[in-house]
Amino acid sequence: MRILYYDCFAGISGDMNLGALLDLGVDASYLESELKKLNIKGFHLDIMKDLRRGISGTKATVVVEDPDNEKHRHLRHIEEIINNSTLSETVKATSLKIFGLIAVAESTVHQIAIEKVHFHEVGALDSIADIVGAAICLEYLKVEKVFSSPIQLGGGTVKCAHGIMPVPAPATALIVANIPVKTGLVQHEATTPTGAAILAATVDEFTSDINFPITKVAYGIGHRDVSEVPNVLRVYLLETGNAVSDPNEESATIVACNIDDMNPERYEFIMEQLFDAGAADAWLTPIIMKKLRPANQLSVLCSPEKVHAIKGIIFSHSTTIGLREHPIKKSALSRIETAVHTKFGVIMVKQSVFEGRIVRSKPEYDVCKSIAKQNNINIEEVEREVIKNL
Question: Which residues, 6 or more positions from 257, have their beta carbon under 8 angstroms from its beta carbon?
Fold first, then answer.
């Protein structure tokens, strides 16, 4: 398995990420040619080698050619640019996911509808290039997993479009919710909203432990050079020695028990607790126990590291006094999310990929249900509209 590991000891920004991935081996001319598929003018990449506190790496700068004529964009403008491009579906989906995280955070901070979010810096050409460039680089590297260290946020204050804000900026703080972070190493904004959203959208696991051989180390150089801490983003390529097949395979555990003496109303609560604790799936199977007593088998599928928490929930919230667990190997198709524009608005579609081709597309059910209710139509009509516009 090939793994990309982000070592964010000094934080991360969009340009530091581009520099680090270029330094890791992404072909600069390929990145530039892919960015041209956005069909927007007014910027170019300036890529150079640079040093920070004796550390050599790559500095990537998105140069906006006419800053005075730069315009702010709303989410729908950015979605149109990306969806109308000839970029791959994977790159489009990753880019839209990153922008979506920032849009949700900004709408929450400013208490406005997501479609009215004024993107300021994030809607500018340099941020569009940073975010779409990140998706292009990740596809180019063909990594099966993305890991990251806890994120250094920095300290002090930062000047934003709305004034002086504490670090982390409010949008950044929302984006990194439930992600391991560190603060205070430097007295400036070490992680930007763009950097935080790139990690939140693409990282599979946050951990400080690197248990695999390091095959390559690279550095992205930041624009700031005013601290004893080098303003760099370090990334590693790790190899486990086993290539990942398609579909993806990973270790998992099934925890199960038989229950014949519990009020059935309690199963809903237990299921909610299990999924909140990170269960990948949970289900009930009707069974017949000794003395022909009708019962249910409660089964939970989870990752090995979640087993302890799952056991605690079952013992705390059910009547069972014993559990069974056994390790399994789980195979799952890779999935991408695509934003589809329909006459009802934008609807996200999950697409399953096998051997490089899309084998199944499924619109988000809850969104389709809500639209069907609002328009007093059959839900199948909404789903047909989505498939027609894929």
Answer: 297, 298, 314, 318, 320, 322, 323, 324
